[in-house]
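Why does residue order matter? Because the sequence determines the fold. Keep that principle in mind as you read this record.
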Amino acid sequence: MKAGKVFIVGAGPGGIGDMTGRAIAAVRECGVLCGYTVYIDLIRAQMPEAAGKKTVTTPMRREIERCKAALDEASGGRDVAIICSGDAGIYGMAGPILQLQENYPHVEIEIIPGITAAVSGAAILGAPLMNDFCVVSLSDLLTPWDVIEKRLRAAAEGDFTTVIYNPMSKKRTDHLRRACDIFLEMRPENTVCGWVRNIGRPGQEKKLMTLRDLRDETVDMFTTVYIGSEGILNVNGCMVVPRGYNSFDPNTGNMRG
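Structure:
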């Protein structure tokens, strides 16, 4: 029997309008949908054609089990879409699936990119990523805190706009504060920052504040945080990183000076 194929699908921030055409096609064509329960529920609520498909779901922290289940289904001859939020290759399932593939050499894998929270949240806040930026997760479930702190310090020293995933949970109540303290060593306390919660989903919220105020914010795992680089502006309630276009002369089409 010929093996099926596994599509690792980046489903974007949550709404079907933010899924790529390739992602929608994969969900429609595959006989099995696999993923974290919340993501599968979001897909089924927005795509009627997904309602009748076989689903394989696992809760948080059962990612490897989820990946093996998808590969097992494909081994049995069915095409499988394993659903990830955002982009499958950014804190998603692309890495684990590829690592497990050596045990399933007959299963073909295709990675379908999606819109990660860093860019979808940035579009809501304005233009905070107009220059170099980086992304850091504050979850220490898989990465030791001392490594996370080292990366935060490097981002602060390098003057990157820094996007923070997993900023706070019920058990990790002080990680965002500790991250802000690192940035306050090297950035003015009035640096423009912001956060977006439930990007592209019901209940979406956004807020701009200073770095000093961000230190005392209460957020959650559905929130993406943005710490601005030096020189970032608050322009009519939008985060904007200047990129040198002030030197552009609109009359001549050339750069001034």
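The chain has two domains: 5-115, 118-240.
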